[in-house]
Amino acid sequence: MLRTHTCGELKKENVGSQVSLAGWVNRRRDHGGLIFIDLRDRQGIVQTVFNPAISASSLRIAGEMRSEYVVRISGEVALRPAGTENPRLPTGDIEIIAKEAEILNASKTPPFYINEEVEVDESLRLKYRYLDLRRPRMKENMLLRHRIIKFMRDFLDARGFIEVETPILLKSTPEGARDYLVPSRLHPGEFYALPQSPQQLKQLLMVAGFDKYYQIARCFRDEDTRADRQPEFTQLDMEMSFIDEEDILTLLEELLTSMVSTIKPEMRVVTPFPRLSYGEVMNRYGTDKPDLRFNMEIKDLTDKVSDSDFAVFSSAIAAGGRVKGICAPGCADYTRRQLDELTRTAQELGAGGLVTIALDSSAGSLEQLTADMVKSAAAKFLNLDQIKEIARCLEAGIGDLLLIVAGDNKLASTVLGELRREMGKRLHLAEQALLAFAYIVDFPLFEKDEKTGRLETTHHPFTAPRDEDMPLLDTAPERVRARAYDITCNGFELCSGSIRIHKSDLQRKVFKILGYSDEAIEERFGHLLEAFDHGAPPHGGIAPGIDRIVMLLAGEESIREVVAFPKNQSAADLTFNAPSPVTEEQLAELHIRLREE
After folding, report:
1. What is 70-128 written as a DSSP string?
2. Quick one: CA dihedral 407, 410, 416, 418, positive or negative?
3. Domain shared by 444 and 341, yes or no
4. 232-241/18-31 β-pairing
5. Nearest to residue 159, comparing CAs of 264, 244, 272, 247?
6. Distant-in-sequence, close-in-space partners of 251: CB < 8 Å, separation ≥ 6
7. What angle do CA 178, 182, 184 make, to 5 degrees?
8. 444 and 417 in one domain?
């Protein structure tokens, strides 16, 4: 081998040892007669010293070395001279007195600094991702990802789970997003689909008797990208037989809490995880993935303003809508420009506008507030008692800013949910070292598509309805609750799961409610329904998103920072320039002809 040790493992106890190291030049310092090379590999950095009195030939080679050259250095481990130790490095007590050196490969000047954490344009980083991954932060993110996945495997293995790989080339079936399609050469005109998840496969594994299954699964969805979404992603796919919701939620809470305490003990987790209903979180936070690290809950003000002469409120209430608000603490001094920004945000989300009420901090208390201490265009329509009542309902005090939206109930909650998230970010209300997990339960089984008016499944069509809601499938399916559950953390959905349908007659009924014909059911799902008729056990599962978990534990704001080779915001791979055209010969083999738009 070219090395006897790695750069990060040498300590005081190695003093006097003859070693050979290999890696990249992290930094070169020429001090006249001496040259210092900080050598770097994945395990760490160590200082090497080239002295002409020890080896003149090695000094000449060191003089040719530059940043990111790949080199090999042999020499003796020695203590650093007193006063020159570097406590920031694990190897900071020692150095290597170089006796031999070899340049294994030169390097061009990198397009950005590797050895310094400086701001670099993301497109440049993604184009040269192999260099970006050498940087300390990215290296630590990849190592964290490795430790998390290893922990998951060890945790589940100790509890009797087995890992089973499932196919990547599958049949196209509706799972909630667009499929990536792969044309078949051997079957002209027919296509495989890349799996959006191994959903049906893991259910078939339950029928096969593998009652505790997991997989570190690659999944593909042709969706628009965002900070927490990639076209291809990785999830911990799990399924179990003969269990109920409590078994799954207990297992996941143990997995997540023990993982954090083992891998990131400096982060705090609140236990037990709170259990919140879908309706509750939508009303209190305006989203089904709330950030629970701060309060600022949405409050319903409808009853407080029902007798108001303010047309914005009265017209919304008359149309069956609601008036809701939140309190932004300490923001009464927001400028007109800042208030206009918040109003534009509300309007872009669909609201007609945003009512703002600033409570001047010059008042000693809310009770001492006078009309001239209220800054709001709505003040001419609301009397002081009404404003105080609104403030009390929103748990506001002097110096606070009230943000109020009137309109459709769901829209008002959604808009305020986004404003809550924005204000929490602006005011730095969320404790960064806190992981606020929560279970979200009691989802509706179906929801109505606003464009078509048709019922769609909230999660997927294989989710079982609540037993007590079964009769409603025939009379009021939109009121049926699902045996589904999400786990959220810090404003992100980490995983979604459910108890599955395991009987073919119930599964057919759900497909019928969704509008599938008998022919479509048989063509798309016949394999699954037939399996259910061969002794399918009761089963359920969940699938935590690994990319998002790593992102949260790494303290990053985008999963692109924890994926080795991600796509950019346009779903393009800048390292390989993918997607890209293919040759006419390749298309001909697949029996495909491109049609000009």
Report:
1. EEEEEEEEEEPPTT---TTSTTTTEEEEEEEEEEEE--PPPSS-SSS-----HHHHHHT
2. negative
3. no
4. unpaired
5. 247
6. 159
7. 145
8. no
Q: How many CB atoms lie within 10 A of CB 137?
A: 13
CA distance to 64, 90, 140, 388, 538, per residue, from 134 (Å): 22, 19, 10, 57, 47
At residue 172, what is the residue type?
Answer: S
Short-list 162, 182, 164, CA closest to 172: 182
Task: Read off the tokens for 140.
Answer: 């630590």
Query: What is the Cα–Cα distance from 78 to 48, expressed in whole angstroms?
Result: 10
Q: Is the pLDDT score of 25 beyond 80? A: yes
Looking up residue 26, the CATH number of its domain turns out to be 2.40.50.140
Whether residue 374 sits in one domain with residue 415: yes
> Would you say residue 137 has pLDDT above 70?
yes
Mean pLDDT of the 38-46 span: 97
**Cα end-to-end span (Å), the chain:** 57
Cβ-contact 20, 2 below 8 angstroms: yes
Q: Centre a 10 Å sphere on the Cβ of residue 358 and count the other Cβ atoms it contains.
A: 20
Q: Quick one: 445 and 537 in the same domain?
A: yes
Q: Which residue, 552, 361, 330, 284, is CA-closest to 427?
A: 330
Q: Within 10 A of 15 (CB to CB), how many other CB atoms are there?
A: 13
CB of 55 within 8 A of CB of 34?
A: no
Please give the pLDDT value at position 227: 87
> Which residues touch 408 (CB under 8 Å, ≥6 apart)?
321, 322
Q: For tokens 């464009």, what's the residue?
A: 451
Matching residue, tokens 């395991």: 502
Residue 223 · residue 177 · CB < 8 Å: yes
Residue 193: its pLDDT value, please?
95
What one-character DSSP code corresponds to residue 62?
H
Residues 522 and 498 grouped into a single domain: yes
Q: Cα–Cα distance between 455 and 449 in angstroms, integer?
A: 6
Domain that holds residue 380: 294-429
For helices 504-513 and 518-532, angle between their N-to-C axes, nearest 10 degrees: 150
Give yes or no for a contact between 471 and 208, defined as CB atoms under 8 angstroms apart.
no
| 347: enclosing H helix or E strand | helix 336-348
Cis peptide before 538 (omega within 30 of 0): no
Written as one letter, the residue type at 162 is I
Q: Is 197 exposed, middle or buried (0-12, 13-18, 19+ CB in 10 A)?
A: buried
DSSP characters over 198-234: SHHHHHHHHHTT--EEEEEEEEE-----BTTB-SEEE
CATH of the domain at 270: 3.30.930.10
Is residue 416 in a domain?
A: yes
| Domains held by the chain: number | 3
Residues 6+ apart with CB under 8 A from 470: 480
> pTM for this structure?
0.93
Spell out the residues 6+ positions from residue 121 whose beta carbon is closer than 8 angstroms to its own. Answer: none
Based on the fold, state whether residues 347 and 453 are members of the same structural domain.
Answer: no
Inter-residue contact 258 to 215 (CB < 8 Å): no
Amino acid of residue 423? M
Confidence of residue 175 (pLDDT cuts 50, 70, 90): low
Mean pLDDT of 260-274: 96
